[in-house]
């Protein structure tokens, strides 16, 4: 099977986008997180496409529950995380599906950010579910990104039945692997895309200003 058939990116696919920076935020705190495993595949594909990458593992950040009365600089590692997000050209949001939406650790991380971190930035979405396709998780993350004036990559990656999706850290289904790898490629391809006009939702998102 060729690299293109399997969804893997060969060295020959690498381009000159070495100045593109892709950061993935993992919304799962589990030690054996399948969300984290999937994001590692996304970042590997982005590296093969010429980008520098960083996994923002929320287990490594102290993020108290968001409190609008508390300055970000006084909220544990919130400012450190926001700085890493600002430094990225493309941000990948990855989350398990919790109660039909995305995880509270990821929501907290995003709440500590605002327009300075997300506006006019390229964002990719990945969701993982123990059951059927995590469609609502992707929809909810996309809505939040729209309220932050981010440009969301049309291609998104959904991993259903996650307990059977991996074997020794590798995808069992080549088609699913290809979908995840494509997200990594698109993260580089669209890193500098011209952003859309501000959204209606962002006009009402006063909490995203002046972080």
Automatic annotation (TrEMBL):
Gene Ontology molecular function terms on file: FMN binding; oxidoreductase activity
SUPFAM superfamilies given in the database record: Flavoproteins
Transmembrane parts of this sequence: none
GO cellular component: cytosol
Domain of life the protein comes from: Archaea
InterPro entries with a match to the protein in the record: Flavoprotein-like_sf (IPR029039), FMN_Rdtase-like_dom (IPR005025), NAD(P)H-dep_reductase (IPR050712)
Cofactors demanded by this protein: [4Fe-4S] cluster
NADPH-dependent FMN reductase-like domain segment(s): 21-162
Pfam families: FMN_red
Family: Belongs to the SsuE family. Isf subfamily.
Name listed for the protein in its UniProt record: NAD(P)H-dependent FMN reductase
Originating organism: Natrinema salifodinae
């Amino acid at each position: 099977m060729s690299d293109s058939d399997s969804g893997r990116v060969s060295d020959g696919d690498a381009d000159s986008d070495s100045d593109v920076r892709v950061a993935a935020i993992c919304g799962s705190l589990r030690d054996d997180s399948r969300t984290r495993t999937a994001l590692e595949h996304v970042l590997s594909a982005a590296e093969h496409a010429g980008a520098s990458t960083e996994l923002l593992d929320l287990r490594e950040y102290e993020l108290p529950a968001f409190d609008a009365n508390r300055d970000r600089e006084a909220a544990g590692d919130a400012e450190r995380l926001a700085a890493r997000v600002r430094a990225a050209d493309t941000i990948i949001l990855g989350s398990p599906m919790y109660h039909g939406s995305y995880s509270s650790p990821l929501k907290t991380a995003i709440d500590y950010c605002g327009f300075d971190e997300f506006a006019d930035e390229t964002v990719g979405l990945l969701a993982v579910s123990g059951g059927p396709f995590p469609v609502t998780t992707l929809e909810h993350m996309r809505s939040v990104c729209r309220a932050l004036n981010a440009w969301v990559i049309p291609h998104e990656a959904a991993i259903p039945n996650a307990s059977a999706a991996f074997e020794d850290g590798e995808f069992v289904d080549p088609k699913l692997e290809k979908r995840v790898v494509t997200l990594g490629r698109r993260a580089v391809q669209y890193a500098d895309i011209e952003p859309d006009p501000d959204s209606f939702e962002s006009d009402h998102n006063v909490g995203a200003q002046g972080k």
